[in-house]
From TrEMBL:
GO MF term set: hydrolase activity, hydrolyzing O-glycosyl compounds
Keywords: Glycosidase, Hydrolase
Protein name: Arabinan endo-1,5-alpha-L-arabinosidase
SUPFAM superfamilies named in the record: Arabinanase/levansucrase/invertase
C-alpha cells in the first residue's frame, strides 16, 4: 500500500497510476499474484470506495461453459472458492437433471494458481436426506443442489449448500465436511443446518458462514423477509440462539438474496444480490453492500440509509457490481 505524499508510479495493462491521483488520506492498494500486478485500487478515507478498476484474471482449463448451439451446458453458477494445502477449489451449483437423479455440488481444482489450469473433478454425491425430505406435493422436487459456500476450521473444510423447491420457501441448508477436499468420496454429510417451510418469514437457502467475535455464524435468506443471521454450534452443523434480521428491501417482490459478510478494519460488510436471476442475459442481477460495526447489525449503506427497510420505507444498499456486457452482476 502506498499513501499520500509518497513518490511512486504504477503501470499495468496499459494503465498508469501516480501520486497526482491521490488526495490526502487516500491509499493505493495493489494486488499481486506471482509478483505481477493484477489489480490496483484507490481507497478513499471517507467511503473506502474502490475507484480504479483492475484487470480480470485470465482463466484457463475447465472453467465452465454454456453454448446451446453445441449442446454444452457446464456452468459454474454460484462459485465458492477456497485454498487448502496449496490447491484452489471451486464449488458450484449442481447441474440440473431430474427429481430422481438431482445434480450434486460440482467441484473444480487448480494446483497452479487462481488462473488455472482448472480441472473438473466432478460432483459430490447428493445425500439421502434430500431424496427423503418432506417436500410439498405438486411443486416438483429439487433437480439439483444450489448455492454452495465453503470455509475451513481447524483443518476441516465445511461445505454448505441449499436444497429447495424453486419459488417456494420449502427449503433447507445442509452441510458436509472433509479433511481432504481433493477426494470427492471423502465428504461426510451432516444433514440439515436450518430449514424453512410455508408460514416462515424466511427462505433457508444461500447459507454463508462467517467468523466474528469468537463465534461462527451462518447468514442466509432469499426473498420473503430478506436476510437472516444465526449462530452456529461448535460442530458447525446446527444453528442456535436468536435469529437476527439483517436486510429487507421492503418491496412486494423482495428480491434480495445470496448474503455474504466479511470483516475489515472494525466493520462488517454485508454483500447481497438483488433483482432477477436465472434468466440468462435477461437477468438483472447486481451486488449491493452495506456495513455495520456489529455482526448482528444494524447495517447501513454509504449514504447512511439502513439496509433493513421498515414501515413502508424501502431499504438502502450501495451497488458495487452491475451488468457488464454479457456478464450479469
Amino acid at each position: 500500500d502506498y499513501s499520500y505524499g509518497e513518490d511512486f508510479s504504477v503501470s499495468f495493462e496499459g494503465s498508469y497510476i501516480g501520486p497526482d491521483q491521490l488526495e490526502e488520506g487516500d491509499i493505493l492498494s495493489l494486488q499481486l499474484i506471482d509478483n505481477e500486478i493484477e489489480d490496483a485500487s484507490i481507497i478513499t478515507e471517507e467511503t473506502e470506495e474502490k475507484s480504479v478498476s483492475g484487470t480480470k484474471l485470465n482463466m484457463t482449463g475447465d472453467v465452465g461453459d454454456f453454448n446451446p448451439s453445441e449442446n454444452i451446458d457446464d456452468p459454474t453458477h454460484d462459485p465458492a472458492l477456497i485454498e487448502h494445502d496449496g490447491t484452489y477449489y471451486v464449488f458450484s451449483t449442481g447441474i440440473s437433471r431430474s427429481e430422481e437423479d438431482p445434480g450434486g455440488i460440482y467441484v473444480r481444482k487448480s494446483e497452479e494458481n487462481l488462473g488455472g489450469e482448472w480441472e473438473s473433478m466432478g460432483e459430490i454425491e447428493v445425500p439421502d436426506w434430500v431424496m427423503n425430505y418432506d417436500w410439498l406435493e405438486n411443486e416438483g422436487n429439487p433437480t439439483h443442489l444450489w448455492a454452495p459456500a465453503v470455509t475451513e476450521k481447524d483443518g476441516t473444510v465445511y461445505l454448505y449448500y441449499a436444497a429447495s423447491q424453486f419459488g417456494t420457501n420449502q427449503s433447507a441448508i445442509g452441510v458436509a465436511s472433509t479433511d481432504d477436499p481433493s477426494s470427492l468420496e471423502s465428504w461426510e454429510d451432516h444433514g440439515t443446518v436450518v430449514e424453512s417451510e410455508e408460514g416462515d418469514d424466511y427462505n433457508a437457502i444461500d447459507g454463508s458462514p462467517v467468523y466474528a467475535d469468537g463465534q461462527w455464524w451462518l447468514t442466509f435468506g432469499s426473498h420473503w423477509e430478506g436476510v437472516k443471521l444465526q449462530a452456529l454450534n461448535d460442530n458447525m452443523t446446527e444453528v442456535e440462539g436468536e435469529m437476527h434480521w439483517l436486510q429487507d428491501r421492503n418491496y412486494e417482490i423482495n428480491a434480495v438474496e445470496a448474503p455474504n459478510i466479511i470483516e475489515r478494519d472494525g466493520y462488517y460488510y454485508l454483500f447481497t444480490s438483488w433483482d432477477t436471476c436465472c434468466a440468462g442475459t435477461d437477468s438483472t442481477y447486481k451486488i449491493a453492500v452495506g456495513r455495520s460495526d456489529s455482526i448482528t447489525g444494524p447495517y447501513e449503506d454509504r449514504d447512511g440509509t439502513p439496509l433493513k427497510g421498515e414501515n413502508d420505507i424501502q431499504n438502502g444498499g450501495t451497488i458495487i457490481l452491475d451488468t457488464e456486457d454479457n456478464q450479469i452482476g
